[in-house]
Amino acid sequence: MGEMLKLEKKHDAKGLAPYVESLELPNASTWFRATFGDEVGVRLADSSERTRVNLQLVFPELLEQLNAKHFTHPKAELLTDSCNGDASAEEFRVLASRRDKQLLYHVRFTSSSQTATVSYFAYVDGAFRYLTYFRINPQINGSAAETDGFKVPGAVNVGGNVIRGRLTREVTPMYPVRARMEGIQGSVLLRAIIGENGNVCNLRVVSGDPLLAASAMAAVRQ
Q: Is residue 91 within 8 Å of 28, Cβ to Cβ?
């Protein structure tokens, strides 16, 4: 990414072309179906086809926009599972919807006051390929446990009492100073998806005072 940004900035189209060509995903339809299943995979392949077909035009334009906004410090991040700390909420949906655990990447860019993310990349047939950014439609993920209207393949709903019995360590929330000073107390109800490795992800507040919620979430994440 760093080399491509430099080449675009110098308007070196000839030098940039082999890089962009290497980003093209071979047999895209097959790859999407193998990674996300037949139904979801076909829709994702179709939705991203226009960008992929026109990659030789689209990607240089993307690099031009990044250079124009002075996003010159790319950092590639590996997105392994749905509880990955670097994944956004939308990326969580994509990661959780994979049928096989094909590793995905995004690249973050920073400038003096802004950040940008380019998604997604995958290592396929000996090269990194640009898949384009895509979203998972909550209506096409089959039967599974659901959170915020999103069905997570393979997930099951588990009650709080069952989870409590499986705790290996209980963390007491820190009482926020302002809440203590104002005499605010009460319960905070949270909903979370917990990965097979025990990591907490997609944690959200169902109810409770906002002054208490942040501390409660920080404790539950541990």
A: no
For residues 118 and 217, what is the distance between their CA atoms, to the nearest angstrom? 28
DSSP 141: S
Of 33-42, 102-111, 185-194, 195-204, the one with minimum mean pLDDT is 195-204
The whole-angstrom separation of Cα 119 and Cα 131 is: 7
Q: For 92-106, write each residue's pLDDT tens digit.
A: 778 878 887 789 999
Of the candidates 109, 66, 104, the one whose C-alpha atom is nearest the C-alpha of residue 84 is: 104
113: CB partners within 8 A, 6+ apart = none
Q: Which of 64, 50, 76, 54 is nearest to 16 (CA)?
A: 64
Alpha helices in the chain (DSSP H): 2-9, 13-22, 28-36, 38-53, 55-68, 89-96, 160-165, 177-181, 210-220
DSSP structural state of residue 104: E
Six token digits for residue 24:
């093209």
Q: Are 122 and 115 in contact (CB under 8 A)?
A: no
Tell me, what amino acid is at 23?
L
Asked if the model's pLDDT at residue 28 lies above 90, the reply is yes
* Bridge partners of residue 121, in order along the sequence: 105, 130
Q: Give the containing element (helix H, strand E) for 183.
A: none
Tokens of 168: 């290996």
**Gyration radius of the chain over CA positions:** 21
- Start-to-end CA distance of the chain, whole Å, equals 35
What pTM was estimated for this model as a whole? 0.69
